C-alpha cells in the first residue's frame, strides 16, 4: 500500500491530489500538510474521520513538523504555489529548503562519510515538485517568442522563485531523487485526460489549459514510475480540446507585467482588491 505526502494540501493542486488518491485502488495512505488544519477540514470535512489520512499543520519552515509529515512515505508531492506575480516571492525556495532539511533531519543523508556510503539503508522519498513549463526550454520550444515573453514577464517573480528552488534541489542530486512537474495553464475543470511529455514537440492536439485534476493524475503517474523520470522536467498537458481558459488570466497578465516593471504596484493592487 503506497504512502504519499502532500505538502500544500489546501491549494488547488493539493485538493485535486487528495480527491484522486482517496478514491484510488489499492488504498493509499496520505500525509497531508497544510498551514491551517481548520481550513483543510473546511474544504474536505470527510478527512476528519478518514483513517487513511494524517494531517500535519503549522509553519512551512518548521523542519521537525515537515520531517514528521514526510517520514516513511514513498513520494512527496510539493505543490505549494501562488498565481500572482509577487515581488520577492520565495515560497518555492522555502519549500525546497525545508524539504532538504527535513530529509536530513530524518537521517537520509549522513555527514562525515564517503559519497558512496552517503545514503541510509532507507532511501529518501522522491520529491515531485510542482513547477512550470515556461522555465523549461525543451517544453516551451513550440511556444511563439511573443507569447513566451509575455508569460515570462507576467509571472517573472514566480518563475524566478521556481528556478532558484530547482537549482537548490539539484545541488543535492548525489543523494536526493526529484522530478519537476511543469504544466502550462491550469483551470478548475473536470478530469478529461492528460499526457506526460519531455519535449514540446511531443504535444498532441489539445487545449492550452488543463484541469487541476488532470495535473494531479499526471503527478500520480510520475510517482508510480519513479525511475523513469528521475531529475527530469516533465510536462503534463491536456489531451482534451475543450478545456476552457481561466477567466482571470487576462487580468493576471496585466497586473503581472506591471509588477515586473513596477514592483511597488503590487501592494496597491492588493489594497484595491485586484490581486
Structural notes for this entry:
With 275 residues, the protein is an alpha/beta fold. Helices cover 35% and strands 16% of the residues. The radius of gyration is 19 Å and the shape is globular. The protein has an eight-stranded mixed sheet with strand order 3-2-1-4-5-6-10-8, sandwiched between helices. Mean pLDDT is 91; it is low at 111-121. β4 (75-78), α4 (91-105) and β5 (126-130) form a beta-alpha-beta unit.
Gist of the model:
This protein has helices at 12-22, 37-43, 63-70, 91-105, 145-154, 156-170, 212-223, 249-261, 266-271; strands spanning 3-7, 29-34, 53-57, 75-78, 126-130, 178-181, 185-187, 194-197, 209-211, 233-238.
In which order are the strands of the major sheet placed?
A: 3-2-1-4-5-6-10-8
Q: What's the pLDDT, averaged over the residues?
A: 91
Radius of gyration: 19 Å
Tell me the helix content: 25-40%
Number of helical elements: 9
Q: Let me know the largest β-sheet.
A: 8 strands, mixed
Assign the structural class, choosing from mainly alpha, mainly beta, alpha/beta, alpha+beta, or little secondary structure.
alpha/beta
DSSP E strands, number:
10
User: What amount of the residues lies in strands?
Assistant: 15-25%
Query: Could you say which overall geometry the principal axes of the C-alpha atoms support?
Result: globular
Flag low-confidence runs: 111-121
Terminal-residue CA separation? 41 Å
Indicate the multimeric state.
single chain
Instruction: Return the string of H and E elements.
Output: EHEHEHEHEHHEEEEHEHH
